[in-house]
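User: Can you predict the 3D structure for this chain?
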Amino acid sequence: MPAISKACPVVLRLQAGRPEILAFVHPSAGKQFMKGTIEVGESPLEAARREMREESGLVADSNLIALGRTTIGHDRQYWHFFEWSAVGLPDTWYHRTEDDEGHTFRFFWHPVTAPLDSEWHPVFHQAFAFLLPRIRQF
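Assistant: Here is the predicted structure, written as structure tokens:
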């Protein structure tokens, strides 16, 4: 198993009958999904909840559903994915992170049916390809 593993909370919503996935714009690294390193002594689920809170300010008020894990990137890190269905969140918002040097992220919703463009790092293209057959289409 790779030395570093990541947790990736996947926040979904239904908008106008179509599923969307929460993403953000990192000020220096383009469009991304939430993810972060699983800390020593932390389960992947605990890390997913923590990363969601730190990166977006969201606190899951219901269970996160495990979607599986896969290796991502040239260093083949394990990414563990957890789905959470959101209701009542705004279309966009800004959040100043508790980690990542206190960057401010702009959150937005990406349609699940739309491909990712070149503004996304290749690791997120890999993550999206893994997620598509696993996330609920409501």
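The CA atoms of residues 87 and 107 lie 15 Å apart. The chain has a mean pLDDT of 92.
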